[in-house]
Amino acid sequence: MSKKKIWESIDQNSQMLTKMARDIWEYPEVSLEEVHASKLQAKVLEDAQFNVTLGLKGLPTGIVAEYGSGKPIIGILGEYDALESLSQDSVPERKIRVEGGHGHGCGHNLLGTGGVGAAIAIKEAIERGDLHGTIRYYGCPAEEELVGKLFMLRDGYFDNCDALLYWHPGANNTPWRVPCLASTSIVFTFKGITAHAPQAHLGRSALDAVELMNVGANYLREHLPREVMFHYSILGNGIAPNTVPDICQSWYMMRAPERSYLDEAFPRLVDVAKGAAMMTGTALENVEVLGGGNDMVMNQTLADLFVENMDELGGPSFTEEDYAFAKQLSDQFTPEQKLWGAKAFQIPPEYYDKVLLDKIVPTSDVKILPISGDADPSWVFPFGAFFAATWPIGVFTHTWQATACTGSSIGMHGMLFASKTLAGACYDLMSNEALLSKVKKEFKDLNLDYKCNISADAVPRKVKLK
User: Fold this and answer.
1) Residue (of 401, 430, 417, 279) closest to 359 by Cα position
2) What's this model's pTM, rounded to 2 decimal places?
3) C-alpha pair distances (Å), 160 with each of 70, 103, 442
4) Are 242 and 302 in contact (CB under 8 A)?
5) What counts of helices (H) and strands (E) characterise the chain?
6) Three-state DSSP state, 451
7) Which architecture does CATH list for 3-179+296-446?
8) Among residues 122, 264, 277, 439, which one has the fewest Cβ atoms lying within 10 Å of its Cβ?
9) Are the C-beta atoms of 186 and 289 separated by less than 8 Å?
10) What is the pLDDT of residues 156-201, one digit of tens each?
């Protein structure tokens, strides 16, 4: 057996993988609408002789692709949803591709494709007889709305996995050793009475209720632990200003370092909504929890394994053109902006003067990652994750700069490095029984008590911003 063959497979498939990542980048689709991306990945995996299911319960763009038989079962998690209003060409200056269009400002075009590449490489090793067991690729929709993995876990799609592996685009090459933020996504719906604006006294404005709720929520911040954050958008009512609106909604995302913080804060936010309804004579018609996640539980044995594979690989293979592109972007940031970007991705001070990180950072002193996701599978199965550099230091996720990089050669080279890191870790877990046992023992010793935060009859739903 040779891990080198695994990595050679990814090199041989690099043109196919970069084409797939670019194709998904050029057709960005937001959460629960990833039709093109999911079909493309499913087709590639079917052609590679995986047993592919496209379309899961409530998730028509979800994928489970499997090859092999028996234990161990190693899962690789992928994503492919884009972000609204981040259309950008793959150039180092602001250039919108499609006015009002979407963009891959979180790099999920790379994230899922890198996972596909790793899964195919492991499949080929199983086919050769070099490895034994089962490799699964999970195409997880709607990560940006904190939905996909939560429902897939509830509905049993991860059952029997021995470990789950994941990576995310970023500015650093480093494992995730600390938790990310717990989160909850909620829509509050208010119902009022329509009226002609000059006779507004006959109506009851649902928009007034939403606005008063948001004011009350901002006052509530002072009386919650400072670690609790929430952000909101007003969903449109579709009525001109000469009519009192009878329906309006406010969409909240709450975040905190631990689920217990949100369990205490959530009913207080609901009370604010009830008060807004009372003040306006409207009804709080519905409080709908769309999704969310617990704080992510990281497996340190898997983190060490990612570092070992990164060190063997030696870092991403960036070109002179990549460094030039990165410098053009980096030169647009102030020193303070670049510093904040470095800290966000756990980059140590000794690398602050670099533009594009090609080194491996095995650990950091960060206590929590200032991000959140649908992280619940990490409470049920051993879970490992890492960042790979796909944009320069100073670039944040959810920006046009990130979108530019995820469609560029920088993003592609970072993705291929990530794909090899995932494949190398899979190889080690499937060929070293003692290593996998250590991973599973570490997880078991945590003695976690998992609670799903969505109901048994909840269904994934796309929120429309009007």
Assistant:
1) 417
2) 0.95
3) 10, 35, 17
4) no
5) 13, 12
6) coil
7) 3-Layer(aba) Sandwich (3.40)
8) 264
9) yes
10) 999 999 999 999 999 999 999 999 999 999 999 999 999 988 988 9
